[in-house]
Amino acid sequence: MRVHIIAVGRLRAGPQKDIVDDYLKRFDRAGRALGFGPARVIEVEDRKGGGMAAEAELLRRAVPQSAVCAVLDERGKVQSSPEFARKLAVWRDDGRGDLALMIGGADGLDPTLRREADFALSFGKMVWPHMLVRIMLAEQLYRASSILAGTPYHRA
User: Three-state DSSP class for 22?
Assistant: First the structure.
């Protein structure tokens, strides 16, 4: 199952991008034997200032056809890392070829996009900066592959 992190905004070269790239590289290596990957980041940017609705349309256009669509949103479901790993495994085992994980911009996600999603995931009740959510998501993808592979990375 190919994983697409589709995010509003550009992550410039620097420590944040390095961390995301490192975790996604780890995910690709660990996930390959499990039927995951590759993982890629697709960045969209609303240059016309159309707000959340315009951002939602850009996100929709970047989603591969028949992908599972999941949004990262504070209103979503809070899951443990093992629960998230099992969710990924179920989608993979159901034969889903693509997973699109969408991250909104500074103002969040358009409500219509949230309603259209197959799943909404939350990293807790707090609101996180959208650039930091990329790092957290990349790490959780790697952690999920480690859990499914039975490696010692996850020590909960």
Answer: helix
Non-local (6+) Cβ contacts of 68 within 8 A are 91, 96, 98, 99, 100, 118, 119
Q: Which residues pair with 68 in a beta bridge?
A: 99
**Other beta carbons less than 10 A from residue 150's beta carbon:** 7
Q: How many CB atoms lie within 10 A of CB 96?
A: 16
Which residues 6+ apart lie within 8 Å of 116 measured at CB?
A: 60, 69
What is the reported pTM? 0.95
pLDDT tens over the chain, length 156 residues: 999 999 999 999 999 999 999 999 999 999 999 999 899 999 999 888 889 999 999 999 999 999 999 999 999 999 999 999 999 999 999 999 999 999 999 899 999 999 999 999 999 999 999 889 999 999 999 999 999 999 999 887
C-alpha distances in Å from residue 89, one per residue of 7, 53, 128: 23, 31, 26
